[in-house]
Every structure is written in C-alpha cells, then in structure tokens.
Amino acid sequence: MDFNLKDKVAIIGGASKGLGRACAEVLAQEGAKVAICSRTQADLETAADEIRKSTGSEVFVYAGDLDKHETIEDLVAKTVEHFGKLDILVNNSGGPPLARAATANEELWATSIQRSLLFFARMCRAGIPHMRKQGGGRIINILASTVYQPIDNLALSGATRMGVVSYAKSLSDEVGKDGILVNNVCPGALLSERMLANTQNRADAQGITLEEALQARADETSIGRVGRPEELAYLVGFLASDKASYITGTTMLVDGGMVRSVLS
Ligand SMILES: NC(=O)c1ccc[n+]([C@@H]2O[C@H](COP(=O)([O-])OP(=O)(O)OC[C@H]3O[C@@H](n4cnc5c(N)ncnc54)[C@H](OP(=O)(O)O)[C@@H]3O)[C@@H](O)[C@H]2O)c1
C-alpha cells in the first residue's frame, strides 16, 4: 500500500534513535517532510543526513529537551516557520525512569509526569491550531504495552501513559469534526537502545545474561522473537496517511502477541 505522504509535514519526537528514528524514516520514505527532535545535536544531525540520503526527503533538525514545555512550543513554531504548515504529529520521547510502584520517589514521579503524560498534551495543544487551520491532521502517540499489562520496574510507565489513553480519547472527540484523528500505538519489546538497557537491568536483577534476558522476552511473544523498530513505524505510516480515515480514539499494540489480554 502506498501511504502517499507527499507534501505532508510531520514532527517526530525522540527521533535520533530507536522507534522515533524508524518513524521519521518511514514517513520520509512516503514523501513527508520531517522535523526531527531529540536532545543530542550530533546524533540528530547524523540521523538527518542518513534519512535525507536514503529517502531524498527534506529533514529539519531541532535539538531540545522535550521534557520542557518551552522546547515543545518552539519546536512546533519553528517547524511551521520552516515548512509552512503541520499535518502529522508523532508524539514520542524518551521513556520514563525505571521505578517500582512502592518506592518511586517525588523526583521520579515528576520526570515521568513531564515526559510520559504532559508531553503528549503539550504537543497536541501546540500542534492542533495549525492542523485546524488547514482542515485536518493526524496525531499518533507512542506509548507502551504497560497500559495493558504491568512490567517490573516500569510502574510509572503504565501509571502515566494510562492518562494519555484517556486524554487521547477525549481529544479525539473534540477534534474529530475538524478532520484531526488521534490514536495511540503501544510497542511491546522492539530492539532499541532503551529496550536493551531495560533488558540488561532485568538481566542484572535476575542474575542472567543479556542474551538470556532477550530470549525470555522473545519467549513471551506469540511470534517467538522481539520486534524491530520499523515494524511499529509501518503502522505509524498507515495511521498518518489518508488511508486511515476512519480510525480515531483507539489504542493499538505492536507486540508480537506478548500482552496476555484477549481484548486489546
Ligand atoms: N523499544 C521498545 O521496545 C519500547 C517498548 C515500550 C515503550 N517504548 C517507548 O517508546 C519510546 C521510544 O523508545 P526507544 O526504544 O526508541 O528509545 P531509545 O532507543 O532510547 O531512543 C530514544 C530517543 O528519544 C530521544 N530522547 C530521550 N529523551 C528525550 C527528551 N527528554 N527530549 C527529547 N528527546 C529525547 C533520544 O535522544 P537523546 O537522548 O539524544 O535526547 C533518542 O533519540 C520511549 O518512550 C519508550 O519508553 C519503547
């Protein structure tokens, strides 16, 4: 299927690596002009060069910390200034800190709330006026399988991202008639730096090797392997396209069958 994103403008957060990077690449492959953001300028420049080379699409680079409200407002303003409009928001950032429910302290909670709850609302609030101006848009929030099933040491991931699920449903009601569709995509275990670091943490806690811990994650899935970032990015590409014209307010898993609920 051709997602045909030619002349669309997308902002992708956390896009120098991992899932964000894969989303930027897929949207650019489909013809979108992409604005990519993360904190480390050098990594962003490298990612931008590689995406330009492999796709031929325009890439705008914005280095900044998406935990900060002012970064988000400036990222959206500068992107619109640069490309003239905004069609697609892929709301993705770093994950919340590792924490257990009983012991998560004020600092861990505060970081998680900025990064994994307020971030999504701030991106939407900044982006929606531009989408309304041109009669529509797409918002895709990258969350986590923790909204379906807890993972040890990721208590704050589920606690904050559940709020985004509810927020996105309310938002989808408010902006649907303006042609703006809002959906959540939840990765299970997709190979990235963060996923490897989290798995190493789990391996250390269990006294096993990283390879054994990765195999354990693979064994939790129906497919029998961990996923690749682009396996999530293709769904994001579809949801960003005009082909996904009757899907809003939903939450979808990309987890190879890992989550143990029947309805998802
Ligand atoms: N991979 C998985 O299997 C998986 C599963 C469930 C949920 N997730 C969630 O999906 C999101 C992406 O994960 P990933 O696996 O792609 O992680 P990753 O490989 O660590 O990549 C994270 C990206 O976000 C950027 N970033 C981190 N903190 C940022 C901040 N405060 N402001 C701006 N950019 C920031 C990083 O660059 P800088 O460090 O240079 O800023 C990097 O480009 C996370 O929220 C994660 O919790 C991933």
Summarize the structure.
The protein is an alpha/beta fold and 264 residues long.
* Overall pLDDT level: 97
As for the CATH topology of the largest domain, it is: Rossmann fold
Query: Largest sheet at a glance?
Result: 7 strands, parallel
Bound molecules: NADP nicotinamide-adenine-dinucleotide phosphate
The proportion of strand residues reads 5-15%
Q: Give the overall silhouette.
A: globular
Low-confidence regions: none
Quickly give the structural class.
alpha/beta
Helix-strand string = EHEHEHEHEHEHHHE
- Radius of gyration from the alpha-carbon trace, in angstroms: 18 Å
Placed side by side, the strands forming the largest sheet appear as 3-2-1-4-5-6-7
Main attributes of the structure:
alpha/beta; 264 residues; seven-stranded parallel sheet; Rossmann fold; binds NADP nicotinamide-adenine-dinucleotide phosphate; 8 helices; 2 domains
How would you sum up this structure, described in words?
With 264 residues, the protein is an alpha/beta fold. The protein folds into 2 domains: 9-190 and 227-254, 3-Layer(aba) Sandwich (Rossmann fold), CATH 3.40.50; 191-226, no CATH class. Helices cover 48% and strands 14% of the residues. It has 8 helices and 7 strands; from the N terminus they run E-H-E-H-E-H-E-H-E-H-E-H-H-H-E. The chain has helices at 18-29, 41-55, 69-83, 106-133, 155-175, 193-206, 210-219, 229-240; strands at 9-13, 33-38, 59-63, 88-91, 137-142, 180-187, 251-254. Strands 3-2-1-4-5-6-7 form a 7-stranded parallel β-sheet, sandwiched between helices. Bound molecules: NADP nicotinamide-adenine-dinucleotide phosphate.
